[in-house]
Amino acid sequence: MAALVAGALVIAACGGDDDSGDDAETEEPADDGGDDGGDEPADDGGDEPADDGGDEPADDGGDDGDDGGDDGEGDDSGDGDTGGDDTDDGEGDMADDMMAPVRGGVLTYLLEAESDTWDIPGANCAVACITVMRQVMDPLTIINDQNEVEPFLLESFEVNDDFTEYTLTMREGITFHDGTPADGAALQRNLVEMASGLLQGQVLMDLVNGVDSIELVDDMSVKLTFGRPYATFLYAIAERTGWLFAPSYWDNPERAGALAVGTGPFMMTEWVRGERTSLEANPNYWRTGADGEPLPYLDGIEFRPVPDDSARLATMQGGDADGTHDDTGENLEYWRTEWEGNLLEPAPDKEAGYLMFNAGKPPFDNPDMRRALALCTDRTEYQAFRAPENTIINGPFAEGALGYIDDPGFPQFDPDAGNALLDEIGRPDEIIYGTTNTPATQLTAELFVDMWGTNCGLNVTTDVFDQSELITKALTGDFQVFAWRNHGQNNPGLEYVWWHSRHTEGLALNFGRIIDEEIDSLMDQIQATTDQAEIDALAQQINQRFASEVYNLWLVSAEWEIPYASNVHGVGVVTLPSGGVAEPTIAGRTWLHEAWKES
Questions:
Q1: pLDDT tens for residues 443-469?
Q2: Which has the closest alpha carbon to 43: 60, 31, 55?
Q3: 209: which strand partners?
Q4: Closest CA to 151 of 214, 235, 223
């Protein structure tokens, strides 16, 4: 199985830090003490392991959901106001409105992790991977700043009344980086390749006749037919599942290690694993900026993977890079109070940082064991020592998001009750806490080992592994409990691949192996509607079910900052064909389409 994951899937640890804990996307471990791991299939609504690194599958898709994902990753990072007294709070970089963009220059951007492949159908593409690919690949649809889906590469989309048929029509005149047309045939090929992937295929698994349900209608249009309602599909194709690759990429027998070929504002020209991914401006890009001038403004972008959080911070402080993303608890206070450059305003939707139980095997297949561990966990102590900038949470949905409840009934710290329950059900011989081998995640592991031993007399050991192993462990179920980061898409339908029991077999995107008929029914109902009030009510029931069954041990909100230099502008800006603007950021991912540097 491990060979299958490493070989056939070419699963990439595309991003994620060991501590926090992002599309469907795969989840990543939490950043400050959790493990990041996994990528997500559809977009961007996937989960990512807590910041230990990993990519998330693409989102389940949908009209009212967020485009993503996080990717999901477990995050220990904190919550807090953006920007200190001397910091630009990034609310759209207001000075940009009065400045004419300057052409030229190369922007250097630091990533929290390296990617193993750009071959998305089977890749674990998380935050770092998505950040690169957003500049190279255009999505079919895009989420605007009102959390609504709009056509992007598509000229239009049509949906039938029960959300089982979608007709997608491409824009005329767009070409790939290799000069070939981005037309209906290319769209059909792309969707077939995605549906055939081991990870993205789970996002498109309800096609009524498999890939034969992806039909070329005419030169520019494709029709998809699903066997059950899929109301979030249009959100799913706003990131990974909807990235349009050139046919030449799919034809490349060495594509697992090849450069991506898309339609985006930048072309991938070099990839030196562990050192850099270099992009150059696409001279034939189809969009213009808000000023009506051709995009992009930059000559290029150089992405550098720097997994060490302190090294990324030092590099930015030294002026040797122009931007980065960060969800590390130890760094957030600096960005918010001392950083003299810009900060992009954070997205209102936040991922959840939590301890993910494997409910498919002992000891956490017993809900009383999960409940007992929650009673033995002092989350206030965890917050104080590992995530002081974050807010303690009781469920997967952030305040203000669909499905949020202030008190869904999640067990609070009560060691007396925890000990009483353990005396009743018996203590396991050993609890194995999985963690990646970074200093930050091991500090978190040490905290929980000591806490559970002291509070409830539990024998806890650690399984320490390289971050590259994290997503494989999640996909194959080779764990008892570890820190994770995920969700935060403001459309509960995008959580389908993470929570529905259909996704618990084999290489499972439902990493926690949650098999719950009530949650399954509620998720199916969400996929059959776009009514926000109805989705909210259904998601609140899911929230309560998670609390009563303690499928996850909720810790804190996952917090991201995207700091960039004071001479850089336009980060997060995408001027849409409709005249509106895209959602600037979600879960550590952003856009550099219209970024520019002062001379």
A1: 999 999 999 999 999 999 999 998 778
A2: 60
A3: 211
A4: 235
**What sign results for the dihedral spanned by CA atoms 93, 112, 54, 397?**
negative
pTM: 0.83
Burial of 85 (0-12, 13-18, 19+ CB in 10 A): exposed
Q: Are 191 and 237 in contact (CB under 8 A)?
A: no
> What is the dihedral angle through the alpha carbons of 251, 253, 255, 260, rounded to the nearest 10 degrees?
-30
Residue 59 per-residue DSSP state = P
DSSP structure string for 237-251: TTTGGGB---HHHHH
Which strand (E) or helix (H) includes residue 357? Answer: strand 351-357
> Which H helix or E strand runs over 268?
strand 266-272
| Rounded Cα–Cα distance for residues 523 and 528 (Å) | 9
**CB neighbours (10 Å) of residue 158?**
11
Instruction: Say how far residue 491 (Cα) sits from the centre of its chain.
Output: 13
Rounded distance between C-alpha atoms, residue 367 and residue 363, angstroms? 9
Tens-digit pLDDT profile for residues 250-299 = 999 999 999 999 999 999 999 999 999 999 999 999 999 999 999 999 99
Structure tokens at 193: 């390749």
Residue matched to tokens 């998330």: 56
DSSP readout, 284-337?
T---B-TTS-BS--SSEEEEEE---HHHHHHHHHTTS-SEE-B--HHHHHHHHH
Q: What is the DSSP letter of 481?
A: E
> 74-89 pLDDT, tens per residue?
333 333 333 444 444 4
Q: What does the alpha-carbon distance between residue 525 and residue 538 come to, in Å, rounded to a whole number?
A: 8
Query: What dihedral do alpha carbons 471, 477, 478, 480 form, nearest 10°?
Result: 110
Q: Phi-psi region for residue 587, left (φ > 0), alpha (ψ -120 to 50) or beta? A: left
pLDDT digits (tens, 9 = 90+) for 88-142: 444 445 456 678 999 999 999 999 989 989 999 988 788 999 999 999 999 999 9
Q: By the 8 A CB rule, do 57 and 12 touch?
A: no
Q: Which helix (H) or strand (E) holds 449?
A: helix 439-456
Do the strands 221-225 and 165-170 form a parallel or antiparallel pair, or are they unpaired? Answer: antiparallel
Closest of 115, 147, 116 to residue 131, by C-alpha: 115
Whole-number Å distance between alpha carbons of 590 and 572: 5
Q: Determine contact, residues 27/37, Cβ cutoff 8 Å.
A: yes
Q: Which amino acid is at 557?
A: S
**Nearest Cα to Cα of residue 64 among 232, 310, 238, 198:** 232
Token pair in block for residue 461? 């050991």
Residues 136, 23: Cα–Cα separation, whole Å: 17
Long-range own/partner contacts, residues 576-581 (CB < 8 A, 24 or more apart) = 576/142, 576/144, 576/150, 576/152, 577/150, 577/151, 577/152, 577/171, 577/287, 578/144, 578/150, 580/144, 580/145, 580/146, 580/150, 581/144, 581/145
484 and 49 in contact (C-beta within 8 Å)? yes
The candidate with the shortest Cα–Cα distance to 401, out of 540, 588, 271, is 540
Q: Return all residues near 170 (Cβ < 8 A) that are at least 6 apart.
A: 153, 154, 155, 182, 183, 184, 186, 187, 220, 221
- Residue 397's φ and ψ, nearest 5 degrees, are -105, 130
Report d(CA 501, CA 47) in Å as an integer. Answer: 16
